[in-house]
Amino acid sequence: MSMIRACSGDDLAAIYAIINDAARAYRGVIPDDRWREPYMPMDELRAEIRDGVAFWGYEAEGELLGVMGIQDRGAVTLIRHAYVRTGVRNRGIGTALLAGLEETTGKPILIGTWAAAGWAIRFYEKNGYYLLSRERTERLLRRYWNIPERQIATSVVLAHGQRPKGGGTQPLTP
């Protein structure tokens, strides 16, 4: 049996392992100066949690197979650190986590990811998100994320909902 559940402090080692296993997909894809091993050190993971990222997990047979963070940033909700163990990808785990987290907020949802991570962008687009303009992306990344300028320059932001017709003004106002 599988379920989506809020993660606790007891899950910290599993969250760390899932993130760093799944993030190996970024090696050689994202800019070399943004890659490191481990991709997310334990102290950074703890800092993200202290900063309000609440992790949820997809559990099957007592094992966490995927995790996804959600962070309330006032006017918007951010989906952060979405990862599924390498050995169980493409089984609907990410989709189930995303749908579960979407139900926890009534606010506009924003997702940031690496511009070079085409598979991640396609995943979010398949689930109803669309890419925002470069100008809007940079403005939102500076406002709602705490990331370096180099990461802002190499990232994209996606929003949920129907893409405006004709490429006009997106409905998200923040």
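(the above was protein one; protein two follows)
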Amino acid sequence: MTVAIIDYGSGNLRSAAKAFERAVRDHGLAEDVAVTPDAERVATAEHIVLPGVGAFADCRRGLLALDGMMAALDEAVRLRGRPFLGICVGMQLMATRGLEHGEHPGFDWIAGDVREIPAAPGRPVPHMGWNDLRVASGDHPVLRGIEDGDHAYFVHSYALVCEQPADVLATVDYGRPLAAVVGHGNIIGTQFHPEKSQAIGLKFLANFLSWRP
């Protein structure tokens, strides 16, 4: 079995790959980790991961530049129900639209907008560093063993505001609750960086790789 991490010129792909390799090794999982820009390889993977660092529009543009990639994602994720994980901007691209430097369409897999985090006293933007998770849906398989108060590492200036409260699986308090994990059906996204979140991040990734929605 293969987990395909999409290489579209965005994100610290090597760190993400090493974290997945560590999760596979530590939890005895039978999964190969592949970083690839190849749409055919993504279409046949058992698990699909979309990382992302940078601006919403730039990440979207880089993904669309990969020949056949959006068609491969539609087939594998939407039609065949393969488990999909979006990380940081990869999660934000799942939204209906992003409002960073203009209005840009997202995948519309999770209804909602990606909006700038409001400034607040003592809460500089970007939100950067370790913060506590507040788990709203502890029964989700990918959040198994992750509890309120567990620490995760964030770096972001924009956050996904979901139309449906049920799509928010965990939040982080940054002057107000912000979506930290979202999910619907066979897709899940995390605003924090699992590859930088030590034991909690590795647990999250192992849970994802064991997930069969």
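Reviewer note on protein two: Residues 140 and 169 are 8 Å apart (CA to CA).
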